Amino acid sequence: MSGLPPQLRAPHPDRLAWDHPARDRILAAHEAALSAGDAGYLDPVTGLFVLTAGYLWDRGFCCESGCRHCPYVDRDTRA
Questions:
Q1: d(Cα 19, Cα 2) in Å, to the nearest integer?
Q2: DSSP assignment of 6-54
Q3: Who's near 22: CB < 8 A, 6+ residues apart?
Q4: pLDDT tens figures, 13-55
Q5: DSSP-derived secondary structure letter, 10
Q6: In this predicted structure, what is the pLDDT of residue 77?
Q7: How far is it, in rounded angstroms, from Cα 13 to Cα 47?
Q8: Which end of the chain is less enclosed by CB atoms within 10 A, N or C?
Q9: Euclidean distance between CA atoms 4 and 54, whole angstroms
């Protein structure tokens, strides 16, 4: 997979809150998919397919759909 910067592996807090009850399970599923080079993973809560930050980074642009792992979210102006 691409050269996704390490600081973009975790979702922006606007997309996955720090106190989300399933945050650890979601991040583990995301990391497993990144490690395997998969485009996404099944959300452990909803069962929906979620694209990884690596896949979105390789795509090269934000689609403005509110993706959980969007690496293009402005991280400089948000907490």
A1: 29
A2: GGGSSPPTTTS-TT-TTHHHHHHHHHHHHHHT-SEEE-TTT--EEE-HH
A3: 44, 45
A4: 999 999 999 999 999 999 999 999 999 999 999 999 999 999 9
A5: S
A6: 43
A7: 21
A8: C
A9: 6
